[in-house]
């Protein structure tokens, strides 16, 4: 019962097989291999963006921070949701890689930036001219840190506010595939057609060993990104092992199939929890994460039986009197099974613990 994060999931066999297949002979380094060229073209086709420039890095934090560094000067600010990953979980990487830009936090339900709140925040910035940080860029996360999904229209509304202030917009797409299959739109509709300038196109949460593609829909920023990636130590010399993963991920729409499996599992888990006495959903389940609260005893039973997930916020405690509800984040991955979901739900409800799984060897 593994719901701590999609980061805990193994790599799909197709991806490992692709890396083994790539592991023959010699090939040019630093992205000068044929597979990287093929991946770049495949992403341009998938996004209907023939002019886009595409670069692979190994972490989502690197993708976000390097992309923002190309969009926001050191003396400016990046507008993000107050619960955005770039604010809460990147240890200051965006501030570091931009050379000191600030993050201006904006509210909104389900970790979605509210367009009106964004407009107010932008209007308040630089009100005293040289004495204030300047307006820099906007970043939104899709799927969000609360498991919600922006529709293309919602993305366009954010981008319209940004464009009115002549600001570029970045999308943290660590779970882009999950958002896309949920919204039922095309990659282009979810990004550049709605006004997104740069996308962190995630692969790691959706199964890859560690590959994220930064897609710059405006190629004018490409050379700066290349320089920042190398200067930041994020240009892989044996780049073929990144591109082999991404090539396999895109082949036959594997990326969409993996995301559909994770989202389907989350929908099952969410419906099961919502039906339990005393359990409540805290956010709509629109991608692969479920945010819910249920009585403490249910948490104790589940965690005693080995279920892995985070109380969310993490500073809650299983100890203590009474049986008041505690809230949790449950993340499903491409390999979450119906059996582990059903076993978890029985534990939360108070049923028998699942039989221990015999792991041979
Ligand atoms: C929404 C979001 N963005 C970015 C990241 C950063 O990815 P990484 O941990 O690979 O740096 C994560 C991590 O899971 C994430 O959840
Ligand atoms: C850092 C932690 O939030 C990670 N990004 C996850 O989603 O599991």
From TrEMBL:
<keyword id="KW-0663">Pyridoxal phosphate</keyword>
<dbReference type="GO" id="GO:0008732">
    <property type="term" value="F:L-allo-threonine aldolase activity"/>
</dbReference>
<dbReference type="InterPro" id="IPR015421">
    <property type="entry name" value="PyrdxlP-dep_Trfase_major"/>
</dbReference>
<dbReference type="InterPro" id="IPR026273">
    <property type="entry name" value="Low_specificity_L-TA_bact"/>
</dbReference>
<dbReference type="GO" id="GO:0006567">
    <property type="term" value="P:L-threonine catabolic process"/>
</dbReference>
<dbReference type="Pfam" id="PF01212">
    <property type="entry name" value="Beta_elim_lyase"/>
</dbReference>
<dbReference type="InterPro" id="IPR015422">
    <property type="entry name" value="PyrdxlP-dep_Trfase_small"/>
</dbReference>
<feature type="domain" description="Aromatic amino acid beta-eliminating lyase/threonine aldolase">
    <location>
        <begin position="3"/>
        <end position="291"/>
    </location>
</feature>
<dbReference type="InterPro" id="IPR015424">
    <property type="entry name" value="PyrdxlP-dep_Trfase"/>
</dbReference>
<comment type="function">
    <text>Catalyzes the cleavage of L-allo-threonine and L-threonine to glycine and acetaldehyde.</text>
</comment>
<protein>
    <recommendedName>
        <fullName>L-threonine aldolase</fullName>
        <ecNumber>4.1.2.48</ecNumber>
    </recommendedName>
</protein>
<comment type="subunit">
    <text>Homotetramer.</text>
</comment>
<comment type="similarity">
    <text>Belongs to the threonine aldolase family.</text>
</comment>
<dbReference type="InterPro" id="IPR001597">
    <property type="entry name" value="ArAA_b-elim_lyase/Thr_aldolase"/>
</dbReference>
<keyword id="KW-0456">Lyase</keyword>
